[in-house]
Amino acid sequence: MHLLKASIGNGLLFLPHGYKKTGYVMGIICSICIGTLCTHTVVTLVRCSQLLCKRHHIPMLDFAGTVEVAFEHGPEMIRKYSKVANIVTNVIVCFVHIQAGVIYTLYVSTSFQQVIEHFSEYEMNVRIYIMALFPIICIFAFVPNLKYLAPFSVIGFLFMLTGVCVALHYLFQAFPSPGRLKPFTSFLPIPMYCTLFLYSLHNVTLCMPLENSMENPRRLPRLIKYNMLANTCLYTTFGFFGYNKYMDQTCDTVIKNLPIDDPVAQTIKVTITLSVMFSFGLAYYVPFSIIWPKIQPLLENIKYAKSMFRFAGVILTTLIAIAIPQLIPLLGLLTAISMTTIMLLIPIVTETATKWKKATRFLIAKNISIFVLWILLLLVGAIESMLSIIREYGGEKQKGC
Question: How far apart are CA 381 and CA 373, in angstroms?
C-alpha cells in the first residue's frame, strides 16, 4: 500500500504530453523499457541492502547507509570515499524532494490559474499565483512531525486516485481512432520523456524505510516487482489514452484538457490540485530530517534557527518556481539531473561495490550499459530541457491550458 501511494502521484499526469513529444510507438517502447529497468535497479538496491546487513551483521540500513557500507567494504580504491558516498547520496535525496516541492508549486499554481481565470475572465501572470501560494506552502513546511502529515497524505492519495479514475472516463468518451496519431517524432525529446517516466515511477527513497519496518523484508523485492509492473502498465496506458484523446492539443498535464465548463471536470481539477498541495509537507519533511541534524550543532546559538531553516527551504523552492515557471521543461531538467542518478547510477554503483569480489562479466557488462544510458539521459535530457526553457521562456501560454 505504501509503495502504491508513493507511485501514484502527479507524475503520470505529465505522460500524455510526453507522448505528444515522442510519438505513441516510441512512448510505449520507452515506458516499457524504463519500467523494466527501474524494477531491476530498485530490486537490486534492496537485495544489496539485505546482503550487506547479513554479511556485516547490521540490523538495518537506510538508502545512504547502504551506499556507504557498500563503498566501505568494496574495492580498496573506493573505501576511503564511503563517507563521501553517504553525503552525496543524501544530497541527491534532498535534491529529489526539493525538486518535488518546486514542481508541486508550479502544478498547483498553474492549475488554480486555469480555474480562476475561467470564472473571473481576468488573466494574471502565473508568478502571482505562485506568490499567493507561498503562505500555504509555509504552513505545510512548518509541520513538525510526520504523524501530523499522515492524514493529508491519505486524503491526497484518495483525491489523486479518484481524479485519475474520473479522468480516464473523460479520455474514453467519444473514443477517437488511434490511427491518426504520430508513431514517431524526433530523437531529442526521447530522453526527456524517459526522465518524466522516471519521475512518475520513483519510489526508491521509500524502499529502504519500508524494508526496515517490515516483519518479513525478504518479501519486499517481490512486492516491488508487482508494484512496478502494475504502475508501468497504468502509466503507459494513461499516457497513451491521454495523447489519443487530445493529440497536439495535449497540455503539460492532461487534467487541464478536461472541459473547463463541465462541473465534474472542474471538481476533478480542484481535487487533484488539492492532492498535490497536500504533498507539500512530505516534500519538505524529508530534506529537513536529513539536513537539520547535521547542521543543528552549528546553529544551536541562533534563536529560531530551526524555523529560519524551514523558511529558507520554502523561499528556495518558491524562487526557483518564479524564475522558471515552465512546468514540463523545468521538470525535465531537474529529473535528468536527479532521477537518473538516484534510479540508475546509484543502484548499479552499489551493486558493483557489493559484489565486486564475485562480479561476473555479465554483471559488469550490464552495469556498464546502464551507466552509458545514465550518461545519455543526463546529458541529452538536460540539454533538450534547457533548450525548451529558452524557447518557451516569456512565450504565450498554450490555448486552453
Answer: 11
Phi and psi at 79, nearest 5°, equal: -60, -35
Give the tens place of pLDDT for each residue, 276-332.
998 888 788 888 888 888 888 877 777 788 888 889 889 999 999 999 998 889 999
Sorted by sequence, the CB contacts under 8 Å of residue 193 that are 6+ apart come out as 18, 19, 21, 22, 26, 27, 30
Of the candidates 34, 30, 33, the one whose C-alpha atom is nearest the C-alpha of residue 19 is: 30
Cβ contacts of 68 within 8 Å, gap of 6 or more:
82, 83, 85, 86, 89
Which of 370, 391, 373 shows the shortest CA–CA distance to 326?
A: 391
| pLDDT single digits (tens) 164-175 | 889 998 988 888
First-to-last C-alpha distance (Å) of the chain = 33
Instruction: Please report which confidence band the pLDDT of residue 230 belongs to, taking 50, 70 and 90 as the band edges.
Output: confident
> Taking a C-beta distance cutoff of 8 angstroms, is the pair 211, 46 a contact?
yes
Q: How far apart are CA 64 and CA 67, in angstroms?
A: 5
- pTM (predicted TM-score): 0.89
DSSP-assigned letters across all residues of 356-382:
GGG--HHHHHHHHHHHHHHHHHHHHHH
Cα–Cα distance between 231 and 170 in angstroms, integer?
20
* Interatomic CA distance for residues 56 and 77, integer angstroms: 20
Q: Residue 360 region, left (φ>0) first, then alpha (ψ -120 to 50), else beta?
A: beta
Q: Quick one: cell of 34? A: 524504463
Spatial separation of the C-alpha atoms in residues 147 and 94, rounded to whole Å: 20
Taking a C-beta distance cutoff of 8 angstroms, is the pair 300, 58 a contact?
no
Looking at residue 376, its pLDDT comes to 93
| Maximum pairwise Cα distance, the chain | 67
